[in-house]
Amino acid sequence: MKSFWNERYSSEEYAYGVQPNDFLVEAAKRLPTASRILSLGEGEGRNAAFLAKCGHKVTAVDQSEIGLLKTEKLAASQGCTVETVVSDLREYEIGEQKWNAIVSIFCHVPSELRRVLYPKIRAGLKTGGVLIVEAYAPEQLKRNSGGPKEADLLVSLDELQTQFAGFEIAYTQALTRVIQEGLFHQGVSDVTQFIGINPKDAV
Ligand SMILES: C[S@@+](CC[C@H](N)C(=O)[O-])C[C@H]1O[C@@H](n2cnc3c(N)ncnc32)[C@H](O)[C@@H]1O
Questions:
Q1: Does 203 map to a domain?
Q2: Which end of the chain is more exposed for a tag (fewer CB within 10 A), N or C?
Q3: What CATH number is attached to the domain comprising 26?
């Protein structure tokens, strides 16, 4: 998969554009100033650069070194910096009580990895820390407007609600919406959106 993503990112063009994901732009309004933010599967940096430009301290992790080089370039072109970490999410250490926010925008990984990752995300968020997720939903399989073609990589609302039980749910929705992001996310799409807050008495 790493080679797939390196190849996708190897042209000058930004595969998902340079504008941030619009759901993230709205969700980020709730973040405290100068938050420490981890972005999972950041790719070419459109979301990380946006968050850094807002004054947050952003770490972007992705398996694709080519994507992260473009992340650094995009951030520099916007007058900000993003810390980049080339790593597979299987190995990446998220840490404990470290992040004000963890962001996952269209970062699709197999369900066996998600089951390992979710508890790490839970542990990695500070008390009051915010998890922001937008992912293609299982219903997206019938469409050709973007996202993985493998059912196991898609994320339902039910899965997030179950895995983050105990979080304060600030916003959650499964919806059909039009997405226009670069070459590969284009058109009517079925997505899962989730904004959850790590509660004081985290389990
Ligand atoms: C559809 S792209 C989305 C990129 C970015 N979040 C955005 O919205 O523009 C998915 C990204 O997830 C990354 N990814 C998928 N599985 C990964 C894994 N196991 N470890 C690290 N990165 C992964 C890919 O390398 C790719 O950059």
A1: no
A2: C
A3: 3.40.50.150
Instruction: Name the pTM for this structure.
Output: 0.97
Q: Decide: 107 in ligand 1 pocket, CB within 6 A.
A: yes
Please tell me the total number of residues recorded for the chain in this structure.
Answer: 203
Say if ligand 1 is within 6 A of residue 63 CB.
yes
Provide the residue range defining the domain that includes 69. 2-197
Among 80, 12, 72, which residue's Cα sits nearest to residue 42? 72
Along the 203 residues of the chain, how does pLDDT read in single tens digits?
Answer: 899 999 999 999 999 999 999 999 999 999 999 999 999 999 999 999 999 999 999 999 999 999 999 999 999 999 999 999 999 999 999 999 999 999 999 999 999 999 999 999 999 999 999 999 999 999 999 999 999 999 999 999 999 999 999 999 999 999 999 999 999 999 999 999 999 999 976 54
Residue 16 in any domain: the answer is yes
Ligand 1, atom nearest to 39 Cα: 6
> Ligand 1 test: best mutation among 63, 91, 111, most atoms within 8 Å of CB?
63
Question: How far apart are the C-alpha atoms of 133 and 155, rounded to whole Å?
Answer: 10
